[in-house]
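Researcher: Next sequence.
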Amino acid sequence: MPNSRLQIEGVDEAYSNFLNLFTKDNFANVNNALAKIQPVKDKIFMPSPNYIIVIIENHVYSNIIKSLLQQQTRDPESLVLYNFLKGKLHIEEVKAAVSLKTSNRPDRRYQPLFEAAMIKAIGYVLQQSWKYYMVVSELTPADRTIFSTAVAPHGVALEQNFKLVDGTYPYTRKADLVPLVAAAIQH
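Model: Next structure:
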C-alpha cells in the first residue's frame, strides 16, 4: 500500500489510504457500518499498513487481479493493484493488515503499533475481526514481548484485553509467510 499523506483540498479522499480502499457509497449509506466513521473519516491520521489480505468474492475481478499481481511482482514499487482496488472493497472482504518491520531501531517498533491500534479500533467500531500481523527481518526480545503482549488502546478504554498484534512472523523467504496468510483467511 502507498504511504498515507495529506490530501489536496477538494479531493474526495481520506488521509488514510487504508480507508480509501473502501467503496465511497458505503460511507454515505446509513445502513452500512462504514457510515459510523464518516463523521471522523477525514480526521483519522494513520500510517498505511504495508499489505492487506483480502478475500474478494467478485469473480469478474479474478483475471484482472491475477494480471495485476504479475505486474506487481515484476515491479514491486508499482501501485497498480492498490489503484485497481481503491474504492472497490467492502469491509467484510478485508481479513488482515500486515506491517513489515525491517529496522530494529527501538523507536521504529511503535509506528506499526499505532497503525495496529487504529486498524483494530476501526475494526471494532465496524464490528469486523480484522487481524494485524507483524513481519520482521529480526525479532529482538523487546519486539517479541511488545508484539505478543500489547493490549489495544480501545481495549483499555473498554476494560477488556484486546490483543493488538495477532502474530509475528520472521521473514527470510516468501514461504515464511504461508502460515500468516493461512491464519488470516481462517477466520
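Model: The beta strands are 51-54, 94-101, 131-136, 167-170. The chain has a mean pLDDT of 86.
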